[in-house]
Amino acid sequence: MSKRYMLKVAYDGTVYCGWQVQPNGPTIEGKLNAALSELLGQEIEVIGASRTDSGVHAMGNVCVFDADTRIPADKIKMALNQRLPEDIRVWESCEVAEDFHPRHADTVKTYEYNIYNDIIEDPLRRQYCDFCYIPLDPEKMQQAADYIVGEHDFTAFCSAGSSVLDKTRTVYSCDILVTDRKNDSSWRGREITIRITGNGFLYNMVRIIAGTLKEVGSGRLTPEDVRDIIDSKDRSRAGDTAPARGLTLVEIKYV
Question: For the chain, is the Cβ count within 10 Å smaller at the N or the C terminus?
Answer without folding.
Answer: N
